[in-house]
Each structure stands twice: as structure tokens, then as C-alpha cells.
């Protein structure tokens, strides 16, 4: 939270100077503690804005005193210059002064003083040494009553070994040696990598700065102890960018920035139903990919034999895999766009195969696959299934896991047999596959045939012997 700094030191200022300073220095970020008029930055550092719009970037744990009113100093012939002052006791302070304006900043580092009239300068007090560095500005230094101009990229250090604080050139600028300076953003952004540069003697580390060419805004800064960047730069959108690198010595003083090198990120606008990975763009035959940020580039494709002005769009050559190269005119380094047929289909499985209703619920499993075996990003294509039972649509709730869908259809209460069909398209209506299942009803149970029971025969018992017949009696008549 911004707070107004109180008067920390008595300044020899005229009433006119006080009237010309309606505001006071304010803390715009970070925090400063005040102990007897000495301000000490927190572990996160702090930024103080002067009424002239100049910024004092106070390094973590650094201590200083700040004058609350300016002085009118005769720095140039003519009108006096309104000058704000601070005294650095320990640590580092960077001064950033707008190029336009009549203000200046006076820094006092013990017996060493310096005036910043424009641009960026750095001041450091450590272990009995006082250092002034002209990073990108206009700086003059005063030692023992003598003024000297500190050239751009030079430093002046007051120490036992150098009581005159003679100006010396800072570390030279590295040279970018990377051959890759163009990237293809097939997925809206791309992470730059493979950057390296020449080693600078005396450098403790290096700093990279990436600016957007259109408005000059710094979008990324990276630090590296070796003359290469192992990590990728923040994902970058299509457009033109400017990259610079500088060396930093053991004191933490920066050398001059290298000359800025243009980097290019080519954008890709996909047609409906197409998708892309980091290496390849998959489209259907007859579709075209549109390229952005390629208006002043040259392009070629396999079999063309020459480069020609880059077109805004390109498609598959005769429906086959097509490799397109982009380059800046007159250079050899290229950015490659690989176009391949989409070849996506839906593997549809419906089962069990010998399903009977109402006994078996039906499982539907759908998986998007590529005929080339390439991975399909789940966010690019969506499987949209349509399920029908006979000719009537069926509302089915699918559960999705990546590129796989699963659902269960309960048995129908209507008379069968039935045919369950699954048609799958993508979100743009392009057919991807289908499957079906014939479902039988259980066989009807008929009444058992009538059986006519035959009467059982009683067992035959052997006849007992009959007595012998008596001879007939002779009639007396």
C-alpha cells in the first residue's frame, strides 16, 4: 500500500523549489521500514516513485535516506534543474528516469556522488566499495571535486584500489548464436527453447529479455548462469518478438544489452474438426490450415523445389502427408509445419453379443482412435453418439474418460426382438463410426403335451388245478 515518505534529511532548497514540488516521494510497491530517518527495504524490496515520475527501485534489505523536497541545481547552462536526492548507505538502488523532462536525480554514496539526468542507472554500496553503473542513461560522477561522464555500459567504483573511481567499460554484450529463431504455434501458443549465446569473460550470470515488437512490452525475463537457456520461455502467442541478452558481473552490475534479434512465432488457425499436437497438424482432405504472422515470410513444400511468398493457407497435397517450411527471406533457418490426414474413427463396442431381454443390460463403449496411432488430444475432438432402438431414439447417459465413453442401456419393456444401433459423429457432424446389436427375447414356454395313461394290467396268478370230473352217472332209466 502506498504511503507518503516523511522528510528524512534536511535539504538546502529554495522556497521556489518547494512550491514546484506539490507531491512527495511515495512507495508504490513493496515496503520500507523507517528507523531514525533511515529507510530499509523488506526482503521483497520496494519501489519509490518521485514526483518527477522517476522510480527508485530499492533492492531487498537495502538502506537509504530520501530527501522529501528537491533542489534547484545548475546542471546545464540556462534554467536550473529540479533535482531529487537520496543517500544510499547499504545495498543497491536502481534509478529509472523518463527521457523527457527537466528533472534529475542526485545519488550520494559516501564520498562518491552521481547525477542521473535520463534513463537507467544503478548504485551499489557493499563491503566498503561504492559503484555507479550507467545501464542505459545519462550519468555523471563526482569524486574529489572532479566530474566525469560515465559512458553507456560503463561503471565507476570508489575503493581502496581505485580512489579516483575512474570510469571503466562494463562487461561486453554477448552475441546470440541460436540458429532457431522461428517457431510454429500449432496449439495457439508455443514455448521457445534452444536459445544460446557467446560466453563473456567475468560474467557471473546472464539475463534474457523478450519484448513484443508491436508495442515494446517486456513479456519475459530469464536468468541463467550458463550461456544457454535450459528452461523454456513462457508460452508465447503468434507474432514478432525482440530478444536481447546481457552479462552481469559478480557485483551484480549489468553490462550492455546485446543488439535485439527478431524472433517469430507463426500462428495456426485450424478448420472445424481438425486438431494438432506439438509436432503435427491433422486435417481432412479438402480442408485448409490458415497461418498468421507469416505475411513477410517465404514458404515451400516437399517437391516444390523453391521458396515463394508465404500463402495464408495450405492443405494436404493430394490427400497425403505434406511438409511445409517457412523462412525469412535470405536466411536458411526454417520453421516446419507437418500436415497429415486426420484418420480418426470411433471404435464402437456393444454387448454382450448374445443378449436377451429382459435378462441382460446392454453396455456401450466408444473410443476415439487414430489410424496412424497418433494420440488424439481430448480437448480437440468430441465423440457425439446417437442411440436408437429400432427407429426410435433412446436417451442414454454416457460417462466420459478422456477419449472414451461408456453407457448402459436397460432392457426395453416393449415386445421384441430388438435392434440397438449406435452412430458416432464428432462435434462438427463428421461421421466417425457405428455399431449395432440384435437382441432376442427369451423363447416362449408352451404347455407340456397330454399323456394318456394306460391302465396297468393286474398280474396273472396261475390257476389252481380243477378236480377231475366225476364220470357221469349212468341213468337207471
Protein described:
This protein is an all-beta fold and 477 residues long. The chain folds into three domains: 15-169, Sandwich (Jelly Rolls), CATH 2.60.120.1440; 172-342, Immunoglobulin-like (Sandwich), CATH 2.60.40; 344-439, Immunoglobulin-like (Sandwich), CATH 2.60.40. Helix content is 1%, strand content 46%. It contains one helix and 33 strands. The chain has one helix at 15-19; strands at 26-35, 38-49, 55-58, 63-66, 71-73, 81-97, 103-109, 112-126, 129-143, 146-150, 154-158, 167-169, 182-185, 205-212, 218-224, 239-248, 261-269, 275-276, 281-283, 288-292, 298-301, 308-309, 313-315, 322-327, 335-341, 344-351, 362-370, 384-389, 392-393, 399-401, 404-409, 418-425, 431-439. Strands 1, 2, 3, 4, 5, 6, 7, 8, 9, 10, 11 and 12 form a twelve-stranded mixed beta sheet that branches. The protein starts with 14 loop residues before the first helix and ends in a 38-residue tail after the last strand. Residues 1-22 and 470-477 have low confidence and may be disordered.
Give the key terms.
single chain; 477 residues; mainly beta; Jelly Rolls; Immunoglobulin-like; 3 domains; 12-stranded mixed beta sheet; 7-stranded mixed beta sheet; 1 helix; disordered C terminus
Write the layout of secondary structure elements.
Elements: H1 15-19, E1 26-35, E2 38-49, E3 55-58, E4 63-66, E5 71-73, E6 81-97, E7 103-109, E8 112-126, E9 129-143, E10 146-150, E11 154-158, E12 167-169, E13 182-185, E14 205-212, E15 218-224, E16 239-248, E17 261-269, E18 275-276, E19 281-283, E20 288-292, E21 298-301, E22 308-309, E23 313-315, E24 322-327, E25 335-341, E26 344-351, E27 362-370, E28 384-389, E29 392-393, E30 399-401, E31 404-409, E32 418-425, E33 431-439
Parallel strand pairs: 6-7, 13-17, 19-25
Antiparallel strand pairs: 1-2, 2-3, 2-4, 3-6, 4-6, 5-6, 6-8, 7-8, 8-9, 9-10, 9-11, 11-12, 14-15, 14-16, 16-17, 17-20, 18-19, 20-23, 21-22, 21-24, 24-25, 26-27, 27-31, 28-29, 28-32, 30-31, 32-33
